[in-house]
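G., the chain you wanted modeled:
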Amino acid sequence: MTARVEPYDVGWPGVIAKRVTSPAFGGYVTQRRGPYSKEQQQEDMGRADTRGLFTRYGWTINDLSRDLGQDVEVCILDNGHPTGLTFHVQHKSTDDSGCYALQNGDLSYPIKVDHLLRWCDSVPPVYIVLWDTDQRAGWWLSIQDAILDLDASTSDWRSRKTVNVRIPHTNRLDDDGLSRIRAKVAAYLFPSISQGKTVEFKVEFTFPDTAEGLAARASLQRHIDFGDQVQLPGQYIKALQLSQWFERVWGKFDPGRGDLVIGPRASKRSIPARLDVLTPSGHAATVPFIDLRVLKKGQKQATLANTGQSIPLEFEFVAPQSGPTFDMSVRVVKIPTEVGQLRELMLLRNALAEGGRLRLTLLNDNKVIETQLPPGMVDAAPHEVETVMEELWLIEQKTGARFILGPGFSLSDWDVATVHMLARVLKCGICGSRNATAVFRVRRETADTILAAHLRGESLVIVERNPEPKIHLLGTTISLGPVTYTYTGRLGVPQQDLEKQLLALRPDELVEVRLIGGTVTEEFAKWQPVHTAPTGRDEVPPEGLLLFGDADTPGE
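Predicted structure as tokens:
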């Protein structure tokens, strides 16, 4: 056998190695030459201790390339049988862990940020192990826990080159610590391992004839009948067999070490449904789409809900397996801000308050389940609230305006009065008021005409037109189209006062005229019903004085 030896620079300062090429070695073997530093001795001692710990626990260790940034790969075995679970270790050694200790006993150790970012989503997961060669003791930390802690304590850590990670002093590298590592690795890898798999189990119980035993038996029966979650002490479990793949990941269940928790039989499968409420008075309310999921299911009863659906209401339906009926509960989880959604919520509330027939239609197969709803499930909305909401919705539909009402919104008296007025205008095109007062600023010739009519005992009628009036309501501007204002009434200032004002009036000045005790009528051409003609000149009583405002200022 022949071998070729050549000098080789391994890249470590002060260290020159020989590279041996030989068929017996199947490649290169690097032999170190040069000083063997205290730090290297310390690192080798720490790794040897850690290897021995993993080996005694029954796990195997494989060295990794230094280029990967981790030192070893640990394969988790149960009683010598592979589990398919592995994790990588970044090993650090020290002869004085006290220099890294915090006041509470935790350890603070520096790590390069680029390593943390590279390891954060690593599969297999990466663990940091800090080993004290003097104490022959170690501590561990998962990269995921390190990053969660850094995100909570140091918001800008990603922009740094090096950060200190906190290793809890309770994370000892002993049998209990390795058991915890095994559970964390299993939890980390379980989502990918469990893809497309189901868990089956066979369990045999034995319940003693005691108060505790009978209570445990009753809770198990509730799980069977209704699907409720049940927690049973391990002492009542005689035998338990789980799916082989599940036991390989999590290990054998030891009844003596804890309780058995059986969760509800939930499902992620969507069951789209529609809900209709039909009241004896003929009112109806509809929720057109409810995205239901099975929360729990037993042999006697199933519970479905739309938890997490992005609508204001959360429904829960409880349906017996034996009959075509159901019970329903509903709660508001989010107050909507749009008028349409608020109106639908109010209609449903009022229908539920009145009671009647509930109809649930499962949209996948059009299966219909009905039940009777007694009155008083919720309180009805106040009548004034119902009226305002209906009128706001009408305004939106007619004008195209959109109102956004914030959480806990409230309407002022002016808002409510404006909503009522706009609704009347949009329904019939006209609105007005009696016993009204109107104030105008007019030219002298107009004031002379008004005064002459007043002296003759004639009623006063003033008509004005506005081509595009605008109403401001709840932060929204609404255009209503051309409007004609008709004011009727009697002179509201003494004759002598008006005459004095006219005598002192300059040609370019306006004088204030007040009409009282009359009516104000507003006619909106755009919203007039087809069969109704707007009021005009011909409809003014013959004895009235009709004035059309042009350059004069409008009434108030």
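The mean pLDDT is 85.

Shout if anything looks off.
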